[in-house]
Amino acid sequence: MPGERILFVDDEEQIRKLLSTWLTRHGYDVTMANDGWEALKAIRAKAPDLVITDVNMPNMNGLELTRRMRADHRTARIPVIMLSARKQADDVLSGYAEGADEYVPKPVEMAVLEAKIEVLIKRFRTTKGDGATKRGGNVILFLHGKGGVGCTMLAVNAAVALAATTIYRVTLLDLNLEFGNAPMLMNLTSLRTLADLAENAHEQLDEATFGTYLEQDRSGVRVLAGCDLPERAELVTVPAVQQAIDLLQKQSDYVIVDAPASFSQHILAVLDAADAAVIVTAAHLPSLKATKQTLEVLEKLSFPTERTVLVVNRTSAAGVEMDHVARFFNRKPDVVVPHTEAADDAADRGRPLSVLHPDSAASKVIRDLAARIAVAAPAGR
Ligand SMILES: Nc1ncnc2c1ncn2[C@@H]1O[C@H](COP(=O)(O)OP(=O)(O)O)[C@@H](O)[C@H]1O
Ligand SMILES: [Mg+2]
Question: What's the fold here for domain 5-128?
């Protein structure tokens, strides 16, 4: 496909010249780098459609380059072809382990390389989309700057409220990888998780297989857990999260994501796909300060304000007055959830608050929250 941007990385000038001439002649827009460091700089300046990299290079080798690309939400999905004279099974496997899509032995068989380039760029284009056509349901990211503010409780109950309309197919992704407890609030135990999915290393992950990792709650919400044990969290990579979001979008109108109090690469990856962000805060200074910083980060990332929903959750009976809160944020909170003892009761009984106590004032406000979400990110758009 002419015009596609390829970054070619090799420390040997002869090979750089040879390959770049050949690629340019085949219509690709080629840039070059001498080593992994230079490549990373070039990729961050302008992301290519594909990276072809040598393995052994000074400063930073191709394995490390690929590892770093896969760990960054901006570059995690860019296809990588490794070229190397080292073709022992061990070398090839470590290339794939770092996230290479293809491992091609040197000397390079040009026709084979071209075929692989074509396939990978085409696949990349479809995952990336063209920006104009949406690929499925809306992603709603529940964020908080400080833990214990009821973010998970509200994510779970908003999902249940959206599903209760019976209009929407709703999935809930628990991305609190180390201490996730969204499934617990729905009495779902021993779920299969994204960590299991990574461990099982499915060759081709189709929608049906992926579906076996989801568990349906009585409310109709289908839940995907990130991880079951803190020490297994690292199994869940950034590309794995991106793939999960893609697949969940295909099967739902709303994908609700419960995030930990962090802007990790995983969460930034979700934010890239997010149609709306719900920011949850308590009405106490430590949480308010963290929330202000969270809103500032969203602004720096150019996340549109009209797609944010600011929720003040009164996790305790006391707290800062609402007009003070509004002045502090220079913005009126969109939703204020009243304090209720029923929240802890529901948590202890492993049932969503809005199901156990549908008539409580908090449950009513949660239904308003679901409606606000539907306004910030209308289904089918
Ligand atoms: N409106 C509320 N009133 C009283 N307690 C609440 C309220 N919202 C949440 N809680 C309680 O606050 C605690 C923290 O909730 P959780 O959803 O785990 O917070 P986070 O995800 O922000 O860490 C839980 O014990 C929950 O029952
Ligand atoms: Mg939580």
Answer: Rossmann fold (3.40.50)
Q: Is the pLDDT of residue 246 over 90?
A: yes
Are 5-128 and 138-376 equal in CATH topology?
yes
Amino acid making up residue 170 = V
**What does the pLDDT look like over 180-226, one tens digit per residue?**
999 999 999 879 999 999 999 887 889 999 999 999 999 999 999 99
Distance 297 CA to ligand 1 centre (A): 24
Give the CATH class of 138-376. alpha beta
pLDDT at 145 over 70: yes
Distance from residue 179's CA to the centre of ligand 1 (Å): 15
Please list all protein residues whose beta carbon sits less than 5 angstroms from ligand 2, which is an ion: 151-152
Q: Domain ranges for the chain, please list them.
A: 5-128, 138-376
* Cβ density class 321-352: b for 16+ within 10 Å, e for less: eeeebeebbeeebbbbbebbebbeebbeeebb
Residue 339 Cβ inside 6 Å of ligand 1? The answer reads yes
Query: What Rg, from alpha-carbon coordinates, does the chain have?
Result: 23
Q: Which helix (H) or strand (E) holds 274?
A: none
Residue 47 has pLDDT above 90, yes or no: yes
Q: Which atom of ligand 1 is nearest to the CA of 155?
A: 17
3-state class (DSSP) for residue 225: strand
353 lines ligand 1 (CB under 6 A): no
Any atom of ligand 1 within 6 Å of the Cβ of 120: no
pTM of the model: 0.90
Ligand 1 atom nearest residue 362's Cα: 1
381 pLDDT tier (thresholds 50, 70, 90): low
CA-to-CA distance for 18 and 171, rounded, in angstroms? 50
Structure tokens at 264: 């990790």
Any atom of ligand 1 within 6 Å of the Cβ of 147: yes
Q: Is the CB of 153 under 6 A from ligand 1?
A: yes
20 compared with 2, residue with greater pLDDT: 20
Q: Say how far apart CA 289 and CA 284 lie, in whole Å.
A: 9
- Ligand approaching nearest to the C-alpha of 319: 1
User: What is the torsional sign of CA 214, 278, 362, 281?
Assistant: positive
Question: Which atom of ligand 1 is nearest to 341's Cα?
Answer: 4
Residue 134 has pLDDT above 80, yes or no: no
Task: Assess whether the C-beta atom of 357 lies below 6 angstroms from ligand 1.
Answer: no
